[in-house]
Amino acid sequence: MSDKKEKFTAIKGMNDILPADAPLWELFENTVESVLKSYGYQKIVTPIVEETGLFARAIGAVTDIVEKEMYSFEDSMNGDQLTLRPEGTAGAVRAVVEHNLAYDGPKRLWYKGPMFRHERPQRGRYRQFFQFGAEAIGFAGPDIDAELIMLCRRVWDDLGLDNIRLELNSIGNAEERQRHRADLIAYFEANASVLDAEAQRRLHANPLRILDTKNPAMQDMVNKAPKLLDYLGGESLAHFEGLKKILDANNVQYTVNPRLVRGLDYYNRTVFEWVTDELGAQGTVCAGGRYDPLIETFGGKPTPGIGFAMGMERLIELMKSQGEPAAPSQCDVYMVHQGEEAQMKAFILAERIRDAGLDVVLHCATPQGAGSFKSQMKKADGSGAAFAVIIGEDEVKNEVVAVKSLRGAEGSAQQTSVAFDEAVDHIVDQVIGGGECGPDCDEHHHHH
Ligand code: ATP
Ligand code: MG
């Protein structure tokens, strides 16, 4: 056809979460939220758009995110420089300082939501992706570091994910990193022939981040580089030892990875990542670390902080690779009706059944019309409902409804006629009775 309309597609690297996947996301979100609650973490929701300067300050100018991944734009109404948040810590810490949340003591916070980074889309790496994050503000010791790590372990346990391992490191404080940095630059300069273009660019701006390289040609050289751990002073070492002691006492397995770093000045001491081998190159499902100097750089009183962020898409994919849970049914009851009077009755009854706490799908007309009785029953079967409630002309005349079990064995499906005014009680009894002994139970039409 000549006047064919343009079809739109989602922005590259940004995904729709379709109803088929929604139950899995819901299971994931409910699990994480109930674990966070069980550790006393409180929800905080911050805007998706913030001033661009906030992220430059919070994340650091010489980082992948700020150098090349931010969705930044000018507000055409007033010229403000704005950015779609690439991560959640900056907004959370901004809110803590702005609302003086830590004035009456430390806070345990969590958030979830979409983040935006202009990266090359690939498996496990998108331009809009979802994170769950936690931030513990105002706690100084290694106990809170251990708590955050163990909270993550509980999430993996509750989800039945047993192939995620913990990598741990300490990056000390700014002064310790300064001494390490001098030796590191000297080491890299002595190995200049092995450095790729990105590493050469970062050599003086952010040499620590070179340790993070994924370039296979550089692995050998980087593995032999001076280790930050060897530069830690007494306090940093004591913090790290304190953390390991709690983890050991709680049977948390980990490997110390000296190459695990954060290339920013206000990240300090503990850094950790949860990694899986099941997802290919994008195997980090959660990353966290301490950022004691950050709140001060936001104009707040010196207040320690530590947090983590989980990549939800990667964890959902991991859940999928371990077998998907059975799709839950759309409703308890599907209402089938024929004729205008029956439709009116069906509306009234559907509302009453919902009042009683059950989920009801009421058959509604499509462009092809209301549909035959047979096609409506097909929809009822497909909905996964335990019962169809049927109202036809005869039922209207006799002031009854027909209740048909959809989950009995083939051929044994029972249909009963119930007075209209008794229908709600009867249906609630049936659904609850059926739920108690399961669909294969002979007794599932008993009454209480
Ligand atoms: P990478 O080195 O893989 O780019 P990162 O250091 O940028 O990771 P963080 O900023 O620490 O990642 O984000 C925490 C978690 O969020 C990551 O471990 C990952 O699970 C997830 N994540 C980060 N970027 C993306 C993305 N573009 N798409 C999907 N998930 C992401
Ligand atoms: Mg990244």
TrEMBL record:
Which InterPro entries is this protein grouped with? aa-tRNA-synth_II, aa-tRNA-synth_II/BPL/LPL, Anticodon-bd, Anticodon-bd_dom_sf, His-tRNA-ligase, HisRS-like_core, HisRS/HisZ, HisRS_anticodon
Q: Report the superkingdom from the record.
A: Bacteria
Q: Which Pfam families match?
A: HGTP_anticodon (PF03129), tRNA-synt_His (PF13393)
Q: Name one GO molecular function term.
A: histidine-tRNA ligase activity
Q: What is its main location?
A: cytoplasm
Catalyses:
tRNA(His) + L-histidine + ATP = L-histidyl-tRNA(His) + AMP + diphosphate + H(+)
The residue ranges of the Aminoacyl-transfer RNA synthetases class-II family profile domain are 1-328
Where is this chain's protein located in or outside the cell? Cytoplasm
Keyword set for this entry?
Aminoacyl-tRNA synthetase, ATP-binding, Cytoplasm, Ligase, Nucleotide-binding, Protein biosynthesis
Name it. Answer: Histidine--tRNA ligase
